[in-house]
Amino acid sequence: AAADRGNADRPGHADLAALTAALAELYSRSGRLHAALRLWLALRSPCVLAFVVEHSMVAAVAEHVRLLVALDTPGAIDIFAAHHHTVSPATVVRQLEGNKSLQHLYLHVLFLRDVHAGAAFHARQVDLYAEFA
């Protein structure tokens, strides 16, 4: 019975997520943006992309491409294509390795934005167009 009471006092997963989100919001409001970003990423929050754009933190998520694409594929692809000078196409393509359809989508959107930005991947892009178009 004592063990059951101890577990009842612990916050559940939803409670923990709510508390973590509240802490992320407090960090954000107090200017601790990188701390807030770490929490939003840990929560896998759908609001993380808006947070990244609002606070110009695209460089801070350069190693989280796969996670962000999983959370919001069109939004993340568009952000990484638009900010290809901040997060290189090589970084994005490397992190999307093993998922040809996402590589195809990213390279296609990148090509529409700037035909030269993904020049190092044009041969791969042709192969991907042949496979997915």
Task: Summarize the helices and strands and which ones pair or pack.
Blueprint: H1 2-9, H2 13-29, H3 33-43, H4 48-54, H5 65-71, H6 73-82, H7 89-95, H8 100-113, H9 122-132
Helix pairs in contact: 2-3, 5-6, 6-8, 8-9
Task: Please give a structural write-up.
This protein has 133 residues and is mostly helical. It is 69% helix and 0% strand. It has helices at 2-9, 13-29, 33-43, 48-54, 65-71, 73-82, 89-95, 100-113, 122-132. Helix 6 (73-82) crosses helix 8 and helix 8 (100-113) packs across helix 9. The longest helix has 17 residues, at 13-29. The termini are far apart.
Strand portion, in percent?
under 5%
Distinct helical segment count: 9
Mean pLDDT: 92
How far apart are the termini? 62 Å
**Which structural class do the helices and strands define?**
mainly alpha
Order of helices and strands: HHHHHHHHH
**Helix content, binned percent:** 55-70%
Morphology: elongated
Uncertain regions: pLDDT < 50 for 5+ in a row?
Answer: 1-6
**CA gyration radius, whole angstroms:** 19 Å
Count of distinct strands: 0
Q: In this structure, how is the largest beta sheet organized?
A: none
